[in-house]
Amino acid sequence: MAKRKKGIVALVVLLLVTLTMVSTVMANGRAAVPATVVGVTSMSIPLTEFGLDLEGNADMDELSYAIRRRGDGSLSGHYFYQVSFLGTTNSYSGEVVCLKVEGDRAWVGATVDESTNPDRLGTYSWWQVKDNQDNSSASRSTFVGFGTLEETIDYCEGPDPNFIFDVQRGNIRVNSLDH
Questions:
Q1: Which of 2, 91, 95, 132 could form a disulfide bond with 82, CB atoms 3.0-4.6 angstroms apart?
Q2: 3-state secondary structure of 7
Q3: Which of 129, 121, 113 is nearest to 37 (CA)?
Q4: For the packed helices 149-156 and 2-27, what is the interaxial angle rounded to 10 degrees?
């Protein structure tokens, strides 16, 4: 019975996400542009960069993702994220639920379906990337944030990031396929 209830909740959430994406496309008065966003990145940032009065680093051990948006607005893709700080390492993974692409920037939102941190299971995640397509500077990424479905959908609308950093290792590619 509990599995059936989870299945119904998952179906309702999927329906809400789909309706939100369709209404966003319709509100913009245009069809979604096909796009791909792929990357594998890692970086180590001093905790003081986040305004924390703590010694040490936040280590993005890995953020990897492969996302595709088709012309009809449907999405496919998944991610894996592993982060370490203050002596703790956690990993998260899930499926993409929203994507916004503007030029060389992408805002991504996803589910948290698997995690070593049980408090995050069933929540949502988001991050932003900037592809340095001309190689004049480093590509950039935020660390992954977590919250509700509503916060994730809002994030996909494209706010400026609070903390976006040069990627130290890896590669990001953001491609809008409208040409």
A1: 91
A2: helix
A3: 129
A4: 30
CA angle 14, 16, 20 (to 5 degrees): 115
* Rounded Cα–Cα distance for residues 67 and 73 (Å): 12
The 3-state DSSP class for residue 23 equals helix
Contacts of 32 (CB under 8 A, 6+ apart): 25, 69, 70, 71, 72, 73
DSSP 36-93: EEEEEEEEEEEGGGGT----SEEEEEEEEEEEEE-TTS-EEEEEEEEEEETTEEEEEE
Q: Report residue 127 as tokens.
A: 């991050």
pLDDT of residue 135: 72
pLDDT at 31: 55
Residue segments in the chain with a per-residue pLDDT below the cut of 70: 1-31, 136, 178-179
Judged by DSSP in three states, 29 sits in coil
Cα distance between residue 25 and residue 31, in whole Å: 6
What is the rounded CA–CA span in Å between residue 61 and residue 63? 7
**pTM given for the model:** 0.78
Could you give the CA distance from residue 52 to residue 143 in angstroms, rounded to a whole number?
A: 15
Question: Hey, CA dihedral for 116, 118, 122, 126, is it positive or negative?
Answer: negative
Label the pairing between strands 169-176 and 114-115.
Answer: unpaired
